[in-house]
Amino acid sequence: MRINSTRLKATFVASSLMALTACQSTLEGMGDAVTNLTGDSIHNNFDGKYIAQPQVAKYKEREDELSGTGGVISYSGKDIPAEQVRQSHVVHAPALQQYLDGILDKLVAQWDGSPVNVQIQVVHSQSFAPYADSLGMISMPVGTLNNVESEDELALLIAHEASHILMRHHERDQVVQENKDNVNMLASAVVLANVAKDTDLVKQGDTRTLKYNPSEQGSDNISKAMIYNTVIQTVSDSVWNTAWKRTQEDEADLLGFDLAIAAGYSPRAHSHVLERLENFQGKQEGMLSAFWEKKQAALSGALEAGDFNALGKEVDSFLAEGLTTSLGAVTDYFQKRHMAPDVRDENMKGYAMRVYRPEIRRRVDEQAWQNTKASPEVKAVLDSYRLAFEASNALSAGDTATAMRLARQSQTAQTKNHPYMRELMYNIRLAQGDHARAMQNLELIERWQDASPSLVEIRIERLMKQQRFDDALNAIQHAEKTFGNESMFILQKSIAQSNLGNNEEALATLEKCEKYDEMKVSCESLKKRIG
After folding, report:
1. Contact status, residue 206 vs residue 192, Cβ threshold 8 Å
2. pTM value?
3. Residue ranges of the Peptidase M48 domain (predicted)?
4. Concatenated DSSP letters for 58-99?
């Protein structure tokens, strides 16, 4: 008996089309959010330093999971909504991590409120904009590190994101979560539909077992859907994570400025930071809007018809054009020399003249960051990722030979088995039609805790396809601890448990699964068949 019932398929299609509609609505409003953030400016509504104002004082006393000092943020045991889970790979670079930790420590030390456990990590994205999550983690893209000129610029970027955490903006605004949820929903619907489609109910005497036998088409659809999800998340994170309400951006600008100046950095670097950031956001807004409009109808049609062959072709095209659009825009952005400053820059100049006139004379210290960049370990990482990004650009343009040459050049002893490097080789081998060698790259990844959810999804799918259900279950449990989320792979978990003969555990997992709206119907269906 096939689990892929008409009702189940209809539900997947309906949720997918809802996601398409929601994303379109979001993108239509993104221009206003990025280029003309709503709300009145607060820069001239007070005297003295912003950090000393009463409206900031109420955030200085706190007792929550971020209170206190030290300690590595652990997502294990937490129940983090899927839309808040990071989508990028983490870059393992101890020397670089130590340098960024030093900057962050200097900045947070200027906060005169309750200690807050703010931390920072490097992620593989080419984008320019760092972003902070609700759990106190700031993600710094490699693209930022490759393109800032001084530690002062880095400090101002980090201080801005730390200020979002200190001012508890994630508690007061759901823009980030809502928009990331819209993007994730389509890929999740495709994955769930294909997993359910390829799962049979097998009866052996009185025993019922869910047997997962993925078809080539189903596996291909899942891989493409997760890669597509990664592409969209990579180019959208820096738009949606920074397109917050105008008041919140103003608050983060002002408090971040106070923290950075108190830590000894120069106000002069602020203009450069905002020029780069705002220009990048503006380019992404137009790029994503045009991109989405072009593909919405084709993807909707394929889902509506339940035609997975057509869906696969459209996702193929979506992926190729998405890479070309996003990576091409990034390249154009970094090649552009003269960019118009945002109105936020003008507001901050006025604030600096009013409150920090003596500090304006401070020179930007370019030497500290340049020395760090030139150190062997940091240089190797940044050069390696720069070449890998160039390889991705070549791959998106259809130049597989150049992509392979650059990808091989990007592999150093330090980085060759990073998740992003192996994912790049995986994608190149897939483009060459060499699926066996593509999969071999996944075996070389040394730190799966640094991998993105989409790459973990591919790993789990591969293990299940090979009937390695013990390994698949271990990978799922590791991912649950890494991401602090049990919903992303819960359907696969129940199938793996059932195939290992643990139907009671599978039923318990499916009962948990029913609380997630986007999976409720499919989990109920599987549960009935086991029970």
Report:
1. no
2. 0.72
3. 96-274
4. TTS---STTBSS------TT----GGGS--SPBP--HHHHHH
